Amino acid sequence: MEEDRLEALREDEQMKHILSAWQALDRNSRLHERLGALDERKRRGILLAYVGGYTHGEIAGRLKLPLGTTKSWIRRGLSALRECMA
Hints:
Blueprint: H1 2-24, H2 30-37, H3 40-50, H4 56-63, H5 67-85
């Protein structure tokens, strides 16, 4: 039980770090704008993958989503970002 609490605290700290990286982006940048336009779960998925370094399976577990859904959301979110940045 104590181990579960410690793990939850570590995960909370990691999520705060990941979200602060997004917030640290220049608010006027296209990347910040496009990430902000994404659904919260899609944005978190992309940030967890590319800032936090989590695998798709780990992200699915954290967001409590099926693996296929997680992969699709990340892929679609990245496609939207790519189109915007081109």
